[in-house]
Amino acid sequence: MRNWKNIFAAVVAGSLVFTAGAQAAFLVDVSILGSTTNGSGYSSSLSGLTSGETVYLEVVGQLAPVNTVNGSKTITSLSNTKDGITSLNFGLALTGGGTFSNIGLATAATTPATKGTLSTGGSVSWTGTGSQPGTIGSNAVTSIVPNTGGGADTGTVPSASDVLWFGQL
Question: What are the residue boundaries of the structural domains of the chain, listed by start?
Answer without folding.
Answer: 4-168
